[in-house]
Amino acid sequence: MKYELQIAHLYGDLLNTYGDIGNLLVLNYYAKQMDTQVKVKVVSLNDPFDPDEFDLVFFGGGQDYEQLIVSRDIQRKKNNLTDFINDGGPVLAICGGYQLLGKYYIGAKGEKIAGISALSHYTKSQINHRFIGNIEIENEETGQKYHGFENHNGLTYLGPDERPLGRVLSGHGNNGEDQTEGAIYKNTFCSYFHGPILARNGELAKRLLLIALKRRYPTADLKLPAELKIKPTY
User: Fold this and answer.
1) 95, 121, 147, 190: which is the annotated catalytic residue?
2) 8 A C-beta contact, residue 217 and residue 5
3) Given 9, 147, 172, 194, the catalytic residue
């Protein structure tokens, strides 16, 4: 392989409830086609996060019990994760990971669970209700349509410096009110899509990998990886 990328899988031993680890399999699949070897390292409880060690971060979701444990531990990683994000490091955060990058979220029992405020959104909780079902959104920058499956109790509201991953065409999205789904801040991409998101939306996987490659190899000619054709998977 011509290139190499190191991916941090945040709390990968705890937050695997919804099979979102499949996103790592998809990143590896497309990376090979881009002449890139991907190495994945789980960064879990009590582990340091070194922003200089990693090229891309994946942060999945889980249930409230696991997220409460993660919420306490991630405060020790807060500064380095925030530095990675603000420096333009690519991040994919799904559901609980999405919520914990924000200011806070309210759990199903009404408890306020602290995020790290790396992003400016916050999340409330629905009472005896969840958003469940297929969802389709359109990214306003690229015109690409993303398909997925949502299953979340949270109602997330974006901050003024965030833009949505997409506008809802069908489904509920962040809160069922403003037709937004997910969030983009710098090179951090957040979503409630399970499934996993990248299996149905290869263009997003390619976008994340290209960002990581350009940061790690700033003088390399990445024309061929950039020209990789993504076959429809939906």
Assistant:
1) 95
2) no
3) 194
| Long-range Cβ pairs for the range 113-117 (8 Å, 24+) | 113/64, 113/67, 113/68, 113/71, 114/71, 114/75, 115/71, 116/74, 116/75, 116/77, 116/78, 116/81, 116/82, 117/78, 117/82
What DSSP letter does each residue of 195-229 carry, written as one string?
Answer: TTHHHH-HHHHHHHHHHHHHHH-TTS--HHHHTPP
Cα gap 28→36, rounded to integer Å: 8
190 annotated active-site: no
pTM of this structure = 0.96
Q: Residue 201 corresponds to which tokens in the numbers above?
A: 């939306």
pLDDT tens-digit map of 104-148: 999 878 889 999 999 999 999 998 899 999 999 999 999 999 999
Active site residue 152: no
Pairwise CA distance, residues 73 & 46, whole Å: 7
Nearest to 181 by CA among 170, 168, 162, 171: 168
Tell me the C-alpha distance between 223 and 35, whole Å.
Answer: 12
